[in-house]
Amino acid sequence: MRRSGALAAALARIALALAPLACGGDAGEAAAPLGPAPAFVLPLLGGGEVDLAALRGRMVVLDFWATWCAPCEVQMPILDALWQERGGGRLMIVGISVDTDPPATVAKWVEERGFGYPIALGDQELAMRYGLLGFPSLIVVDEAGRIRVRHTGVWTRDEIDDQLEAIRRAPLPEPDASPVATPVAGAGPEGAGEPSARPAQVAREARRNAAEAAPRSGGVAVGERPSGSR
């Protein structure tokens, strides 16, 4: 049983790492938003935490990665260079590790490679909430907290710049038509002072939630946390 569990974990890691290479990723478009970005509050390597809701008003690039993912190690220097040049102002870049290794192991791996952009400690369950099927995966969240691009595979610097520029040129969604950084059901405080939702808005939210559920359910089989991993 232990051997079969270890084999299953190894196969899951290989499948996740090779998915971007086999499929080539999705170039993505900066057209209509794909829906509100699922909210999260995650611890950062080195202390502190990152709250997606607190980043409203800024463009956010989320980089889902793992230490065992070879293509991730190709993507991360590109993002680190972008962070050094343009990060920290209107542009925020957050790496989200989905490793099951202890934080100290992840921190050592990052330190050895000299990456300076913020790295948060997440998990594969969060990746599945974002509808991801492999790593590396990049999510671009606009100033209104909505997903504008979902891409699996390595992006070049030119491709990233082109996507960010396209999003900047696109009009923002109407403020009353799309809640920003909406938490998952049951999360977050009740009664935040907003007026009760209109029936049309409730219907729009229901359609968005149904649309978002489809990619997440499709990613469970691939993105499950490997059994027996630590």
Explain how this protein is built.
The protein is α/β, with parallel strands linked by helices and 230 residues long. The protein has 6 helices and 8 strands; from the N terminus they run H-E-E-E-E-H-E-H-E-H-E-E-H-H. The strands form 2 sheets. It has a 6-stranded mixed β-sheet, with helices on both faces. A two-stranded antiparallel sheet has the order 2-3. Helix 2 (70-86) links the parallel strand 4 and strand 5 (91-97). The longest helix has 25 residues, at 199-223. It is globular, with a radius of gyration of 18 Å. The protein starts with a helix and ends in a 7-residue tail after the last helix. Mean pLDDT is 73; it is low at 1-31 and 176-230.
Question: How are the secondary structure elements laid out?
Answer:
Layout: H1 2-23, E1 35-36, E2 41-43, E3 49-51, E4 59-65, H2 70-86, E5 91-97, H3 103-113, E6 119-121, H4 124-129, E7 137-141, E8 146-152, H5 157-169, H6 199-223
Parallel strand pairs: 4-5, 5-6
Antiparallel strand pairs: 1-8, 2-3, 4-7, 7-8
Task: Identify the notable features of this structure and list them briefly.
230 residues; alpha/beta; two-stranded antiparallel sheet; single chain; six-stranded mixed sheet; disordered N terminus
Brief digest:
This protein is an alpha/beta fold. Helices cover 41% and strands 16% of the residues. Strand 7 and strand 8 (146-152) form a beta hairpin.
Distance between the termini: 16 Å
- By helix and strand content, what is the structural category? alpha/beta
Number of alpha- plus pi-helical segments: 6
Strand order of the largest sheet: 1-8-7-4-5-6
The radius of gyration over CA amounts to 18 Å
The H/E string reads HEEEEHEHEHEEHH
Mean pLDDT: 73
Q: Helicity range of the residues?
A: 40-55%
Largest sheet: 6 strands, mixed
Q: How large is the share of residues in beta strands?
A: 15-25%
Task: Detail the poorly predicted runs.
Answer: 1-31, 176-230
